[in-house]
Amino acid sequence: MLVAATLPRAAAALDRQPAVARLGAAAAGALLAIAFLPVFFNFAAGNNGLIAAGHAAAGKGMLITDSPVVAYYSHRQPADIAGSQVLPPDRELAVSWMKTNGVNALVLEGISYYRATSLFPDLASGQASPPFGPLGEQAHYQVAGGKPVFAYRFGLELQTQSIYPGVAACIEGDTGTGKTALLAKGVVLEVAGVEVAGEGMGFGVPIVHYADGWVYPRTAKTDDVSTLTTTTWKRTYTLDEIGGDAAHAYAFDPIESRGQIEVTYTVDAIGIRVAVKVLSLVPGFTEVGVLNEQSAAFNDFAADKSPTLVDRNFGNWVPVTGAWARLQSKSLGVQYWLPFIAGAQMHGGRELVPPDFNWAGLDYIFGPSFAGTSYEILVQAAR
C-alpha cells in the first residue's frame, strides 16, 4: 500500500541528525519532498487531529514534529521541518537549541519513544509552560481513534495565535504595502501562514480627528500579557502621524504625539476580543475612529437589514444601521463579523487601487466623549 510504504520514509527523514536537519540541507529536503506526496489526503479519520495541527502550524520559521502528516499539512519548506531527534537530550539545552535555530512551533504526539515526549512530558500531556504557549485550541487536535496530539507556539511565534486550524491572528505583522506602510498596524489575519492584511490597518486601530485632520498611530508598543491558557496582547498606540486626506495631499506626515490609546486583544477559538481604552488625548478632538481592516480580498459585504454587496458594488463608505456586519473572502476561505456598538457610527468600505490602496474593513466612529469600548470579532470559515 502506498501510504504504508511512504510513512516510514517520511518518518526517517524527520528523524535525521542535526547536521542534516538545518536549513540548506538539500538532500534531506529532497527526501522530505518525495515523502510528502499527496497520499495524505487518503489518511483515515484517526489522523484528522494531526492534519488540523499541521494546518495550525503553517507559517515561516522552523517546525519541530515527529509526524509526517503534520509536516506535510504545515506547508512549510522541507528544510524548515525537523524531527525531535535533532534536539539535545537535555531540556534546557533543547530549548536553547530551538531559540538558536529559529524554531517557532512544536507539535507532539503522545508516543513514549519520541525524544520530544521525554524532553517535554508536560507538553506531551497537554500542559503548556513557559517558554511555550498553546497553538490554538488543543481540542481541535484530539479525535476519536487518533493519537494524542498537542501543538505549541515558541519564540517569535508567541506573536501569533491560531484561531482555528489554518487561520491565525498575528500582533506583529509585516509593515504591509501602499499608503499605510509606515503606520502602526493592529492584529492581522494569517491564512495558511500568510498574512492577508494587504494595505489594511488591521483590527482595533485607533485614529483621532482634530481640526487639522485625522491623526494616526505611527508608533506602537506591544506587551504580551498571556497566561498559560489565554493569549492576550496589550498594544499601546501613540497618535503621532497626520494625513491621508485631501488637505495633506493624501500623504502622511509625522507630528508631535497627540496622546496614547491602549488596545487589548484576546484571541480564542471564536475570534478576537478587542478592548479600547484612552490613556491620554490632547483636547480638541471631535471624533475617534476604531479601524478593523484587512485586505481588499474581503470583497463580500453583508449587514443586518442591508443587501449583500460584492466587488465593485461594495464601495468605500457603506453605512451599517443594523445589529451586525460581515466581510467575507471566498478566495481566502475566511469571513469576519463585527457587532453594532451603541453610540457609534459603523461603516463598511473597500478600495483596491494598486499600489496605494488594498483594504476592506468595518470601522467605528465615536464622538468627542469617547473614553473606550469593547467588542468581539467573530472569525470563521467562508460560506
Keyphrases for this structure?
8 helices, 15-stranded antiparallel β-sheet, 383 residues, 24 strands, disordered N terminus, elongated, alpha+beta, Beta-galactosidase, Chain A, domain 5, 2 domains, five-stranded mixed β-sheet
Blueprint of the fold:
Blueprint lengths: L1 H13 L3 H4 L4 H10 L12 H9 L5 E4 L2 H7 L6 E2 L8 H10 L2 E7 L5 H5 L1 H4 L7 E3 L14 E6 L5 E5 L2 E4 L17 E4 L2 E2 L6 E9 L2 E12 L6 E13 L8 E3 L4 E9 L3 E11 L5 E8 L5 E4 L2 E5 L7 E3 L3 E6 L4 E6 L5 E9 L3 E10 L5 E10 L2
Parallel strand pairs: 1-2, 1-3
Antiparallel strand pairs: 3-5, 4-5, 6-7, 7-8, 8-9, 10-11, 10-16, 11-12, 12-13, 12-14, 14-15, 15-24, 16-23, 17-18, 17-20, 19-22, 20-21, 21-24, 22-23
Helix pairs in contact: 1-3, 4-5
Give the second-level CATH assignment, the architecture of the largest domain: Distorted Sandwich
* CATH topology name of the largest domain: Beta-galactosidase, Chain A, domain 5
Distance between the termini: 36 Å
Question: Count of DSSP E strands?
Answer: 24
- What is the overall number of helices? 8
The whole-number mean of residue pLDDT values reads 87
What is the percent of helical residues?
10-25%
Number of domains: 2
Oligomer: single chain
Strand content: 35-45%
Largest sheet: 15 strands, antiparallel
Give start-end ranges of low-pLDDT stretches: 1-42
Q: Shape from CA axes? A: elongated
Gyration radius over CA:
23 Å
Return the CATH class of the largest domain.
Mainly Beta
Structural class by secondary-structure content? alpha+beta
